[in-house]
């Protein structure tokens, strides 16, 4: 990442050196822009929803911290709710080369169109539907990634006890629900009550800090604890200079939400 891109990222900004694609609709503006160093981002109403560095599959930010989920299982089957520009799909494609069963549910058709522009080679089963409805009655997932946002808010349907129960029932016995938590003080206060609902079903809750971003990744595990998660990553994930920040983040995960 170039110096200017890093500076603007620290300030929470993206320098739109080149706009590559724009969709405007009611109450939304979707843009794909490329920074000075070549890094590409997708913006939703000015908020970064996806990032793709020009020289690495890793972003250094919260997207990376969902990737270990795929290393925890043999022949992983993963459901992702919320597509964004497809950063996580892009990363999983490159890391696993088709050896992963990935379903992605996205409610916004324009977002799907943007993702196919942002990452033209996307390899996943993309379903255009409300994720809270889709998960009802499903079975057999090893992990569910919840990264659904409207601006800076998780839609209400995903904060309900019904969704938590449906997600729990959709996963195998050692499944993990991984949730991207972000936003300001109001959003974070809502997450405290959300956690009480999660703890009614899940045996373990762990928090991983999402790299340079302020995001938190909450891991809601049906059965496996921290030591087993770390062991599986040690056994299955090749650690190198590019991805060691991910492994270190998991080693430091805690039970403290904030």
Question: Outline of this structure?
Answer:
By secondary structure, this protein is of the alpha/beta class.
Please explain how this structure is put together:
The structure is a single chain. The chain has 258 residues and is of the alpha/beta class. It has helices at 3-10, 68-71, 87-96, 109-118, 131-134, 161-170, 185-201, 226-236, 244-251, and strands at 18-25, 28-34, 40-44, 47-52, 77-81, 101-106, 125-128, 141-146, 171-181, 204-209, 216-221. The protein folds into two domains: 3-52, Roll (Spermidine Synthase, Chain: A, domain 2), CATH 2.30.140; 62-251, Vaccinia Virus protein VP39 (Rossmann fold, 3-Layer(aba) Sandwich). Helix content is 32%, strand content 27%. Strands 7-6-5-8-9-11-10 form a seven-stranded mixed beta sheet. The two termini are 29 Å apart.
The helix/strand series, from N terminus to C terminus, equals HEEEEHEHEHEHEHEHEEHH
Find the count of extended strands (DSSP E, 2+ residues): 11
Structural class: alpha/beta
Which homologous superfamily in CATH is the superfamily of the largest domain? Answer: Vaccinia Virus protein VP39
CATH topology of the largest domain: Rossmann fold
- How many distinct domains? 2
Percent helix, as a range, is 25-40%
């Amino acid at each position: 990442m170039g110096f200017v891109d890093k500076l603007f990222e620290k300030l929470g900004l993206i320098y739109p050196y080149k706009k590559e694609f724009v969709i405007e609709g009611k109450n939304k503006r979707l843009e794909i822009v490329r920074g000075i160093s070549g890094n590409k981002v997708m913006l939703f109403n000015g908020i970064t929803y996806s990032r793709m560095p020009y020289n690495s599959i890793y972003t250094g930010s919260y997207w990376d911290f969902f990737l270990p989920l795929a290393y925890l299982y043999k022949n992983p089957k993963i459901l992702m709710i919320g597509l964004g520009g497809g950063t996580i799909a892009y990363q999983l494609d490159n890391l696993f080369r088709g050896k992963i069963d990935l379903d992605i549910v996205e409610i916004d058709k324009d977002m799907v169109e943007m993702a196919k522009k942002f990452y033209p080679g996307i390899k996943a089963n993309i379903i255009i539907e409300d994720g809270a409805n889709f998960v009802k009655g499903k079975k057999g997932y090893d992990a569910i990634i919840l990264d659904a946002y409207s601006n800076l808010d998780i839609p209400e349907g995903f904060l309900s006890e019904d969704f938590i129960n449906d997600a729990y029932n959709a996963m195998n016995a050692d499944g993990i629900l991984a949730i991207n938590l972000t936003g300001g003080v109001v959003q974070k206060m809502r997450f405290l009550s959300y956690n009480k609902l999660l703890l009614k079903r899940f045996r373990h809750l762990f928090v991983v800090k999402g790299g340079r971003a302020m995001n938190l990744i909450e891991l809601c595990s049906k059965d496996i604890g921290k030591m087993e998660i770390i062991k599986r990553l040690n056994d299955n994930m090749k650690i190198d200079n590019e991805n060691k920040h991910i492994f270190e983040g998991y080693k430091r995960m805690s039970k403290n939400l904030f």
